[in-house]
Amino acid sequence: MSDAPVDYRPMWTDLGLDLEAHDLLLTAIPQLYADAYLSQQDRPEGMAYFDFVMSEIHGLRIKELVDHKAAGGTVIGTFCVYVPEEIIRALGGVSVGLCAGAEWAYDQVEQLLPRNTCALIKSAMGFKLGKVCPYVESADLVIGETTCDGKKKAWELLGEYAPVYVMELPQMKRPQDLAFWREELDRLVEKLEEVTGNTLTFEALQKATKEVNDKRRALQRLNAARAASPAPISGKDALLAVQVAFYDDVPRFTEMVNKIADELEQRVASGKGVATADAPRVLITGTPMSVPNWKVHDIVEKAGGVVVAEEMCTGSRYYDKLVSEDATTLEGAMDALAVKYLDVNCACFTPNQGRIDDVLRMAKEYKADGVLHYALQFCATYQIEATTVERSAQEAGLPVLRVDTDYSMEDVGQLSTRVEAFLEMLKA
Ligand code: SF4
Ligand code: SF4
Predict the structure, then answer these.
(1) Alpha-carbon dihedral of residues 149, 150, 152, 157, nearest 10 degrees?
(2) Does pLDDT of 193 surpass 60?
(3) Which of 39, 73, 130, 249 lies in the 20 to 30 Å Cα band around 369?
(4) Ligand 1 center to residue 317 CA distance, Å?
(5) Ligand 2 pocket check for 290: Cβ under 6 Å
(6) Is the CB of 379 under 6 A from ligand 2?
(7) Is 50 exceeded by the pLDDT of residue 418?
(8) Model's pTM, two decimal places?
(9) What is the average pLDDT score of the chain?
């Protein structure tokens, strides 16, 4: 067998990527990855899998998606943890997360969206307009949702460039909201049946539910080990595992994460860690961080702290709750999905006390010394909710650092200074 690198350029050309711009992106990501990840000491050996995944982020996984489509399958893009991947999987689709974590083609984006739009929306739009994302180009359907105002209006514009379907999400969690959401899931099934050409069955949904639950259970195991002191894995590595969970092959990902969890449990038993036992332990809560957004974790850990948990959609909100596997009918299985998915504590809900409760519970479980509230600039929901989170954490005796930022590197120096001062305070 030849070890020569595979030439993916014909595949990228077929997908319609702008090869010149794409080359630039593929030069930038490995540099960022090497600086944030490969410079770490004593990483778990199992993280070699994620090094490989990142080295093939637009290669092997895209080839798998292209092959899946050639065999009659579909690829469905999503932007939010409220979209049930179990339904997509049960209908023979592959679910891929499309949120992007880097500034791209902002000159084109700002012709459509106001400058004061959050980086997550601008970036997702930029990756599409700039033709540099093979995931969105592979998607047969892109599912948006009415979580925040920015997103729900952006989908109207994105719909001019890609096939978009929008799910309506309630903004409260009363019984009538659950009933509405349950019906909304039926409407999603109808749309996905049309796109995939398949019919949802109870057996397929139960199988997909079990597989996705297994993925979440593996992430729960990996993250549970972070409660130990010293922490057996860096926050950056744990974040990467959740980021990759949104687009990797489900059974393979589950197997690899369980292997890392085995290794972490051995590390905990032998007292081995990636940071010293007296390193300040930080819980991060807020808006999601998509690849390659590792900025804040990197700053905290390079300043001598260790991130021990993430209360965010690229963190506990993705893996901490499972879908009940007790249903005996398709209706019952759909009811179980509706209950689980409405129980995500996004700041787009009011009230959102569940998020506060989670932050306080997790700070205790993971022995956090302090809380870093992370919000993207211009994200009104999280920036406003930061006040309640900060007040509640301080009342519980937890110091809080509020960070409002974007995907640029311009504020790294200033943020580092603030984080260093925060960590010093946690040590005192
Ligand atoms: S923060 Fe809210 S809108 Fe964003 S992915 Fe999470 S649930 Fe969806
Ligand atoms: S970060 Fe905030 S403004 Fe941006 S998409 Fe998410 S909820 Fe909306």
Answers:
(1) 150
(2) yes
(3) 39
(4) 9
(5) no
(6) yes
(7) yes
(8) 0.97
(9) 97
